[in-house]
Write a structure and sequence with these properties.
Layout lengths: L5 E5 L12 E5 L3 E5 L9 E2 L19 H6 L7 E5 L6 E6 L7 E7 L2
Parallel strand pairs: 1-3, 2-7
Antiparallel strand pairs: 3-5, 4-6, 6-7
């Protein structure tokens, strides 16, 4: 399926401390590009912290803020690409592992 569709999900700004948009709707196989536009490092981690299976479906690891990644000469360090082909249709909760109050949902429709 490849990059049939890309949804850009911004990271956080220092005032909002949340994913923007926090609810993402895609078709199975679509690609979601997360960009950290905030001031601090963030993650995109499946599930909720402390729950069984948290991070099992996807986990970005630390994503640098765009300002820092750009200063280092590699803006890709501020992004995380999630290809949804491995996700069954349904709704998936995700969060930032370093800031667990930051949460969102990905709704995957059949291809």
């Amino acid at each position: 399926m490849g990059r049939r569709g890309i949804t850009r999900a911004g990271g956080t700004g220092d005032a909002s401390w949340g994913f923007q948009p926090s609810n993402i709707v895609v078709r199975r196989g679509d690609t979601i590009l997360f960009t950290n536009n905030g001031l601090f490092e963030h993650t995109v981690t499946s599930g909720l912290r402390g729950e069984p299976g948290h991070g099992d479906l996807f986990d970005s690891g630390l994503i640098l803020p765009l300002w820092l990644a750009t200063m280092l000469g590699d803006p890709s360090l501020a992004t995380y690409t999630l290809v949804t082909s491995a996700l069954d249709p349904g709704t998936y909760v995700y969060h930032c592992d370093t800031h667990p109050w930051m949460t969102g949902k990905i709704k995957v429709h059949p291809a």
